[in-house]
Design brief:
416 residues, Rossmann fold, 2 domains
Length: 416
């Protein structure tokens, strides 16, 4: 299997420039990697000390932020290199001040990996959640570079637990330490013979818990909400729209809605606007409108959602009505509001946990969505009780960052 993997990944690396025209995302994916080594060779300073963080995409980046911030504050003499696998992470965060250097991760071929390690020479490599690239892991180990995984979530359907996954299991054995999100992940790691495992929790809890302490005011959102009961529909997809639009169109007058679609393409915006019958205003129109006169505010922009949730009395978090994956439920939970999601969340343990605590509701149809929203709108005590459960869920799960930092300080970091 190792030979087959290396053959496939090498073919993929060679054909990548030819398939970039398939979609705009693949074009970014290919063009970004075309420039990775030139950026590294230009920006990496040979006598500096680098800690390398690798994130698959935006969600994993957010998980890494608390650790990155702690290191920047306490150990400023270390430089931080951040790599991304996906354009949806890199393109949003490419100007982040947290990174001293940021690039797309070169494809996991032996040649690319050896060149990458030779240029960067990181003192520590920190991978976030899922990114298990066997050639990177083995080469880091061969070069005596400690590798740490944080916020890891193991599942029984992963390749490590399959009969053909031996080559990946061998790669895992090169990792110095795993910080896992939950007890189930720890037990699964032990089944693989991994004893270098700490149950730390998910660093996202640390990330979102800080949001409530920040200035979350957004003037145009304050103007729009204007003391009405506000439902925030965040990171939504067309599959989500199919279940919530009918409720919006028939909702009481004292309820307003903020929709933040996951993608802001004009075609998707137009399709949404055609379905919504209430008075609707776009973010791009806000300067020309009296926002108090509108019932629905559509955020055809990015960067506001975490603050927008602070205005919500109820949140619907998208992604779980389709197969793309549930988006971040922790952002609204930190503000202590009830959360509603779609039906496909079996891979998202935080959603399962919060549902068991009665701080989250899952729906499968438009009728179910309407029923639970009507209940939450009409029953203030239920809203407050459910929201209190959500807020407590966040507060009781913080602390992963400090556990990771303690390990790094004890084993690898120096003050000079």
């Amino acid at each position: 299997m190792n030979f087959l993997y290396n053959s496939i990944i090498s073919i993929f690396d060679r054909v990548l420039p030819m398939i970039k025209w398939i979609s705009p995302k693949l074009k970014l994916f290919a063009n970004g990697r075309r420039d990775s080594f030139s950026v590294l060779e230009t920006e990496i300073i040979s006598d500096e000390r680098y800690i390398w963080f690798h994130c698959a995409s935006l969600g994993e980046y957010e998980q890494g932020v608390p650790v990155m911030e702690a290191l920047k504050e306490k150990y400023p003499h270390y430089k931080i290199l951040i790599t991304f696998f996906s354009p949806s992470g890199y393109e949003v965060k490419k100007n982040s001040s947290l990174a001293d250097v940021m690039v797309y991760l070169p494809v996991d071929t032996k040649k690319n990996v050896e060149r990458f390690i030779d240029v960067v020479q990181p003192e520590i490599a920190i991978f976030i959640k899922y990114e298990f690239w066997p050639n990177y892991l083995k080469t880091l180990d061969a070069n005596y570079i400690p590798t740490i995984f944080i916020s890891v979530s193991f599942r029984e359907d992963q390749v490590f637990f399959k009969g053909y996954g031996e080559f990946m299991r061998e790669a895992l054995k090169t990792v110095h330490h795993f910080f896992v999100q939950d007890e189930q992940s720890k037990k699964l790691a032990e089944l693989l013979g991994l004893n270098n495992v700490t149950l730390s929790g998910d660093t996202r809890f640390d990330r979102v818990s800080r949001q409530i302490e920040m200035d979350n005011q957004v003037d145009f959102i304050s103007e729009f909400v204007n003391d009405r009961l506000c439902v925030v529909l965040g990171s939504t997809w067309p599959e989500d729209e199919q279940i919530f639009v009918s409720f919006i169109n028939t909702a009481p007058d004292h309820v307003c809605f903020i929709i933040a679609p996951h993608e802001c393409k004009s075609s998707a915006m137009q399709a949404l606007l055609q379905k919504v019958k209430k008075k609707t205003v776009l973010y791009s129109e806000k300067a020309k409108k009296n926002l108090q006169h509108y019932d629905v505010f559509v955020m055809n922009t990015v960067g506001y959602l975490s603050r927008v949730y602070s205005y919500g009395d109820i949140a619907y978090v998208g992604g779980a009505m389709g197969t793309g994956g549930l988006h971040n439920i922790l952002e609204p939970a930190t503000f202590g509001i009830p959360i509603v999601i779609g039906k496909n969340f079996d891979k998202f343990r935080e959603a399962q946990q919060l549902q068991k605590l009665a701080g989250l509701f899952s729906v499968s149809t438009a009728e179910e969505f309407t029923a639970i929203l009507n209940t939450l709108v009409e029953d203030k005590k239920l809203r407050e009780k459910t929201g209190m459960i959500s807020g407590h869920f966040i507060n009781s799960n913080t602390g992963a960052t400090q556990k990771i930092l303690n390990y790094l300080e004890t084993n690898f970091l120096t003050d000079f």
